[in-house]
């Protein structure tokens, strides 16, 4: 039975390298010629980058091929792997729908085309043989104009059958000069009854306390316990969960080693701040959620008690999980009922 929840996974970074390479071999002669052998592509796709901005450039590689026609292909394989190899019962997929629309269209036409993208992702996510509860988080983007970002919020409100929240992405160092815009958009989203998360306090350049009051969860947020632990009591009172994605911080050069996260976990647990362990970009990292758990344990970043607590926090803070308890608790109940029936 699937047991885990991943609250922070980008659609663009979710495609595992071998599947993306095979797609290029079959449909993109230019990329196939650039990477004729798989190991060369895997090394390029998964290697460590110097900065978050350099790392995010890889998303454009996938966004360009995630079109209306190809999205079902990629999503089916994503779900199959998540269920069989990661044992996921719940997954929130986040992405910017505008960036999956044809670039040759005018801005207004691309805004209109976003609705179909959300529908395609929603329908493709319903795979009967792999029963995972899946919902979408629509990402505003730091490099898109206000009109597009507002349209993304409006679309999320109109399509709550597929969408559980909004986010802002694109590199947290780029929010500063447009901070008032994003505050207004988050206020607007909350007024529409939308759930909210946001990439914030991931890097030392992305620390904007002005945005914190509008977030129900915090995407990454590692700089809060590392550099601003005085904020933790209010985070705990507000019941804001941090979405921690361990491998990301190594791939972006944000941390030198995983053990640096021990301070993050210890200070959050001491303050009563909840943490959900997530993958962020499982394909770019070539690392699955169970391996994130194992790496944190084997490197003494967390203990088993903390791991189990984080696994439960993920379901507790999941925006669209339809049950009151995690699946492990539901399975325990089923097994007890069976034992009673046999007796």
Annotation keywords:
16 helices, adenosine deaminase, 9 strands, Metal_Hydrolase, TIM Barrel, 4-stranded parallel sheet, single chain, 343 residues, 13% strand, alpha/beta
Describe the structure.
The strands form 2 sheets. A 5-stranded parallel sheet has the order 1-2-3-4-5. A 4-stranded parallel sheet has the order 6-7-8-9. The chain has one domain (4-318): Metal-dependent hydrolases (TIM Barrel, Alpha-Beta Barrel). It has 16 helices and 9 strands. The longest helix has 18 residues, at 107-124. With 343 residues, the protein is α/β, with parallel strands linked by helices. Helix content is 49%, strand content 13%. α5 packs parallel to α6 and α6 packs parallel to α7 (146-158). Its EC number is 3.5.4.4.
Quick overview:
GO terms for molecular function: adenosine deaminase activity; metal ion binding. The chain has 16 helices and nine strands.
Class in CATH? Alpha Beta
Beta-strand level of the residues, as a percent range? Answer: 5-15%
Sheet with the most strands, sense and barrel status: 5 strands, parallel
Spans with pLDDT under 50 lasting ≥5 residues?
A: none
